[in-house]
Amino acid sequence: MPEGDTIFQTAAALRPLLVGQQILRARSGRTPGPQLQRVVGSHVTAVEPLGKHMLIHFDNGLVLHTHLRMGGTWHRYAPGEPWRLAAWKARVVLEVAEHVVVCFNAPIAELMPARAAPLHPALASLGPDLLSPDFSADEAFSRLRSRPDAEIAEALLDQRVMAGIGNVFKSETLFIERVNPWTHVSDLSDDQLRSLVSTAHRLLNENTDSGRPHRVTTRGDPHVRGSSYVYGRANQPCTNCGAPIHVRRQGALNRSTYWCAVCQPSHPG
């Protein structure tokens, strides 16, 4: 699933293509799909990342909400250029004078009045956005502390705590802070929770450099693209102690968690 940094980069890439442009044609390759013909003739006013969500605003009072989940992706084409994916996979097609912008395979693509967006259940429940200039570490800490019975890895993935963190940053943040993923929030000190929030905030922001290719991020070694401490490195030696990295499914969503059992020992409680 694309994490907040990827959505941030995607929004930054779409903004110069769409903002200020009139929508000449719009459609969805699937039925049912968003009634995109309603934005034809309008102009795009903003492309806004919000955690793992993205909102495209139009000057006729409508907003397009998308969430890519595991398989969604945005492409840009010149008019008449062949697409790299099948047309039936297109959830959103927006055509402006010089560009065709296509969102493929997004499970969520919905058009709504702009006034309804703040009331949307998935958006209204989001915690502080890690990539927002208004991010509140204190609010994120409070939301973490309010989930004492949750395992910390699951709490970090909860978008109601902090918006934007996903499975990669979850594992990397916990390794950097030497916290075992199965530790309950109640067993962590205030200082530990605040450090986790700070590290997650730092990692996502370091990975929003528009000069880096999409979906390629730098973790672990700032000079090596795609490097990571533990994520995706099952059975490889830990960069800190040399012990093999473990991976195990965790939580209701059965997400993969990577960790070093030596550097991140189980909580004694």
Key terms for this structure?
269 residues, alpha+beta, N-terminal domain of MutM-like DNA repair proteins, Helicase, Ruva Protein, domain 3, 2 domains, 4-stranded antiparallel β-sheet
Structure commentary:
- The protein is of the alpha+beta class.
- It folds into two domains: 121 residues, N-terminal domain of MutM-like DNA repair proteins, CATH 3.20.190.10; 123 residues, Helicase, Ruva Protein, domain 3 (Orthogonal Bundle), CATH 1.10.8.50.
- Helices cover 23% and strands 20% of the residues.
- It is built from six helices and ten strands; from the N terminus they run αββββββββαααααββ.
- The strands form three sheets. Strands 1-6-7-5 form a four-stranded antiparallel sheet, covered by helices on one side. Strands 2-3-4-8 form a four-stranded antiparallel sheet, covered by helices on one side.
- Strand 6 and strand 7 form a beta hairpin.
- Helix 3 crosses helix 6.
- The radius of gyration is 20 Å and the shape is elongated.
- It starts with a helix and ends in a 10-residue tail after the last strand.
- About 4% of the residues have low confidence.
